[in-house]
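Input record (one chain):
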Amino acid sequence: MDKVEHAYGAEQIQVLEGLEAVRKRPGMYIGSVSIRGLHHLVYEIVDNGVDEALAGYCKNINVTIEPGNVICVEDDGRGIPIGKHPKTGISAAETVYTILHAGGKFGGDSGYKVSGGLHGVGASVVNALSEWTEVTIQRDGGIYIMKFNRGKTVEPLTKIGDSDKTGTKVRFLADSTIFETLEYDYEVLEKRFREIAFLTKGLRITIEDKRIIKTEEGEEKEDGRKGDFHFEGGLNSFVEYLNKNKEKIHPMPIYIEKNGEVPIEIAIQYTTAYSENIYTFVNNINTIEGGTHLEGFKRAVTKAFNDYARGHGILKDKDANLQGEDIREGMTAVISVKVKEPQFEGQTKTKLGNSNVTGIVATAVNDALATFLEENPSVAKAILEKCISASRAREAARKARELVRKKNSMEGSTLPGKLADCSGKDPQLCEVYIVEGDSAGGSAKQGRDRTFQAILPLWGKMLNVEKSRADKIYGNDKLQPVILAIGAGIGADFDITKIRYGKVIIMADADVDGAHIRTLLLTFFFRYMRPLIENGNVYLAQPPLYKLSKKGMEDIYCYTDEDLAKAYKELEEKGIQREQLGLQRYKGLGEMNPDQLWETTMDPERRILIKVKLEDAMKADETFTLLMGDEIEPRRKFIEDNAKYVRNLDI
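The corresponding structure, as predicted from the sequence alone:
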């Protein structure tokens, strides 16, 4: 990494305003006080070390989750400046941790060219929202420590020893009076640190979980999970990781790097998949809504491939240009740009708005791709063959879509015949149950509240969309009813404002076949109706596994083996023995009569629904590829690693 040669001392720490409002309105600074906000505290401290790495001064960041959910973050950067700040009269380090908008990241003659995080707010916000914070700094030949309680200094910066090393160590305990939970999710943190390591070439990030957990035998032990992330390949390694379970069209990613006003790093690799996966970052912040850098990339990719295809006679004069979606089919790409003063827009403030970035990215990508395609004609040919095939499939899908519309207009209805619709018309109040099998569908139709509940029975094996293009989907007799019932189109045509039901509920048997149908439907929604999941409209019904009955006693429904064991124990405490109880194991929804189905699975007052959330699109793509794609060995390993073996639950 190139070092940014600027002074970085006490005088570079700028003070903009005070700190007190953070504890009163924490959501304004970290988004929420839920587990998401809790993790944000860790990211803010880690980002300070990452900014040192981007400036060329830090090689290692070590994160430890200590017993009691104490977080420790240690880096080997330059260490926070320790001199007295000219405006506050206290040390620069204490200023950074006690005054809002005090930091070295506001431009001018500072230590940083670009930075992520909360832009100079992170350290003080973490301090304000922690029960206690302890900061140890190694710099200028000494070791210094300072301590805080809920943002207030209890021990100002004090020298405690000598050292020839540099770096900063921060330990903190989040405030339980502010956060809903203090329990960190190791996998969430691990995923973020892996991502940062991919995006920051040469940086090593480690994480270790030292919390105490109980074994099944009741013994206490250290959790012991560890992660060590270091990728000299940078974004190339990132793309290879994302495509690890996919069949690649070319073995090595196409790598683009351009330094200048806006440093750009991009890696692209094509696979035989039918979906595109493009991830964009600005200063290591995941811009999930895209923005101007994504616009520039898409524009340049479309132009470069069309220009090459025209110039080499692959596209004839009579042929129409390939569209962007044709060229991006099967593409996995990671785009990382560094912007000095990023402007974020969008609902979640994760959409880049800097207009100058579009042209800068477009020029860099077009030039680099044009050169790559000329120098690698075999790769260019293989990719363009896929693009042309995608173009033909898109045209076939358009014709299939028109045929579906024409057929429906001739039949006088756009709704599938098997759909038992509800009488209500307000999508916010209506819901549709997609039910496995005609038998269960019949019970659901009889048991439902027809004012707001619609029933769509499915039968037979569904299409695996992971292995199919859109033209196959429109003509599929299993998926077409789902598309028509939801009423908002699919793919690029999908319009969330046109959905006919606020809740789309998948109701399948609680067995292996039911799990397969749920996975097929979720794969379809993720690949072709993703806004439906992102908007929180998809749910999974939870039918019971068992019914316990006894004359004179209200039936007890159990949804898991653990529920059944617990029910037996509670009844025995009331003097009711197992031998007195009738036990029914439901093998499928079709075994329930309409009243039972309503009572256990459809009554809003008593049912259990699981909302399908898209917390991590990258992880979701990996999982769907793993479960439904062509590669067999990774799927076999996943099943073996995650199989639930029968345990004696004393039932």
